[in-house]
Amino acid sequence: MDDDKFDIIMKIHNYVPFRIARALSGHWMDPVNKFMPKTIINVSSTSGLHGSMGQINYATAKAGVLGLTKTIAAEWGRYNVRANAVAYGWIDTRITRPPTESEAMSLGGQAIRLGIPENAKKWRDVSDIPLGRPGSADEAARVILFLASPLSSYVTGTCIECTGGRFM
User: What is the DSSP letter of 127?
Assistant: First the structure.
């Protein structure tokens, strides 16, 4: 993998959440807002927890999200900021379906097909998912909703795995 392919994933998955947190920091650390509950929810992946063949850039970036999340939780807890992450496994979205010729994004003038190739059969195998299927986008969103709600008011510095039991 060349440096450009590695760097673009770092910029998307590490720089963006860092810059968002940094932009919030002055307001959130203001003593006037000390008792206002604040929550950062970062999105990671099981690739960041377990690695992923052929995705060294993505796995590295998603592991970095976990370090960023835990550091913010440790440093900003005194300002009533909670920081958590969700590591998703196989969630059925356009990105996790097989690529098509008609769906691509352009990056630096290069067309990049969306999706996971058909030949990634091991990844598509549900036999190691106790629930026997990929998750839905609604199921994925519910984990975020839980972390954003008062139901998780004493949860910080952790990563919830949303995997249907894969990697258990």
Answer: T
Residues 6+ apart with CB under 8 A from 46: 52, 87, 88, 89, 161, 163, 166, 167
Residue with tokens 């010729």: 101
Report the alpha-carbon distance of residue 111 to residue 17 in Å, rounded.
25
Active site residue 58: yes
Encode pLDDT of 17-32 as tens digits.
999 999 999 999 888 8
Picking from 23, 32, 35, 20, the residue whose alpha carbon sits closest to that of residue 78 is: 35
pTM score: 0.88
For residue 58, the surrounding DSSP H or E stretch is helix 56-76
Domain 3-91+130-162 fold = Rossmann fold (3.40.50)
The catalytically annotated residue of 15, 58, 88, 154 is 58
In three-state secondary structure terms, 156 is: coil
Domain boundaries, the chain: 3-91+130-162
